TrEMBL record:
The lineage of its organism: Bacteria, Bacillati, Actinomycetota, Actinomycetes, Kitasatosporales. It comes from the Bacteria. Residues 14-23, 316-326 have a biased composition (Pro residues). Residues 1-39, 309-342 are annotated as: Disordered. Residues 57-311 form the Xylose isomerase-like TIM barrel domain. This is TIM barrel protein. Residues 24-38 have a biased composition (Low complexity). InterPro entries: IolE/XylAMocC-like, Xyl_isomerase-like_sf, Xyl_isomerase-like_TIM-brl. It comes from Streptomyces chromofuscus. PANTHER family: HYDROXYPYRUVATE ISOMERASE, XYLOSE ISOMERASE. Coiled coil: none annotated.
């Protein structure tokens, strides 16, 4: 078993921070201009878990977001519901009416097992348990195809106790085979996320999987900018440039080195203008989705702060200006987080 060290899972919710200060392009060092593609920003529904899905989508549209990272979970779009196709059709109509793009995410904590966070995984020793995770991903691919999503996100899971890494990598590759077949048939990329503490934790790990599977065309990468800051050897902007050819989905938040804690913008150590400049220069056309799952207690507040921050940090030829229709003021978060999940 490998002795490599990864940061621990997220700690408990910190106390509510002061609002971040959006960066100024005037303060950023001068850089050579590279061809770029306008960035499209979204917000993850796992950071709006206290809202009904209709309300969450309306909020994001009113704030001016381009899309949504839709986590399949019981409180929003339940992937195990008997009437999933009908529910998906209603969501598709709602997204179209609001003009929102979508990525389908599969990081719900307890959607398959009420006792095991993110369990079962693609690495579990029990073949039936692995099959349950595969089934979830197959359902996610069908949902993504019906929604017109630009990608389906997934991750490996943590190394099970008593399992050596070679065995775990074989399980991961074997488990993803039918999912990639379904993704190919549906024309929806599968975007695997390197996750701190998981078997597939780094960009190097993603490339190991890609080579093992024979570099299938529909296998792409979910790059989480905070995770780059947390544990990658390269700075986040360099990670973006290195990952460019495989990018299919991007998640974004602030983070500190060596600490896997998703933070609101301005609370961590990331310098965002060079990161977003590098992302635009790759030509990436999917959504860049704010990932603050532990801030649902104040989700509308953070959604309201995050988009202006990102727009101020983006290259000048980035996203279109915000809508001119008036937006209702959003409430401030409570001083003590409620319902935080360790």
């Amino acid at each position: 078993m490998s002795t490599r060290s990864h940061p621990a899972h997220d700690p408990g919710e910190p106390s509510a921070p002061p609002p971040p200060h959006p960066p100024s392009h005037a303060q950023a060092p001068a850089r050579a201009q590279a061809p770029s593609h306008p960035l499209r920003f979204g917000y993850g529904t796992n950071g709006l878990a206290d809202l009904r899905l209709d309300d969450a989508l309306a909020l994001l549209a009113d704030l001016g977001y381009d899309g949504v990272g839709l986590t399949l979970d019981h409180m929003h779009l339940d992937p195990l519901a008997s009437d999933l196709p009908a529910r998906t059709e209603r969501v598709a109509r709602r997204l179209a009416a609001l003009g929102l793009g979508v990525t389908v995410e599969t990081g719900a904590r307890y959607v398959l097992d009420p006792r095991r966070k993110h369990g079962p995984s693609l690495l579990d020793p029990d073949a039936d348990d692995r099959a349950r995770r595969v089934d979830l991903l197959l359902r996610a691919v069908r949902v993504a195809a019906d929604l017109g999503a630009h990608a389906v996100h997934c991750f490996s899971g943590i190394l099970p106790p008593g399992t050596d890494e070679d065995t775990a990598w074989k399980r991961l590759a074997d488990s993803l085979g039918p999912v990639l077949d379904a993704a190919d048939a549906a024309g929806v990329p599968l975007a695997v996320e390197p996750e701190p503490g998981h078997l597939l934790a780094t960009l190097d790990d993603f490339h190991r999987l890609r080579r093992t599977l024979g570099d299938p065309g529909l296998l792409g990468l979910t790059l989480d900018i905070g995770h780059c800051q947390c544990l990658e050897p390269l700075p986040p902007a360099d990670c973006v440039r290195a990952a460019g050819p495989w990018l299919r989905h991007v998640q974004i938040e602030d983070m500190r080195r060596g600490v896997h804690e998703h933070l609101p913008f301005g609370e961590g150590e990331i310098d965002f203008p060079p990161v977003l400049e590098a992302l635009a220069a790759t030509g990436y056309q999917g959504l860049t989705v704010v990932e603050l799952p532990r801030h649902s207690h104040a989700g509308p507040h953070h959604a309201g702060l995050s988009l202006p921050f990102l727009r101020a940090a983006a290259p000048p030829d980035g996203p279109v200006p915000p809508p001119t229709r008036p937006v209702s003021p959003l409430g401030e978060p409570s001083a003590t987080p409620e319902g935080s999940t360790p």
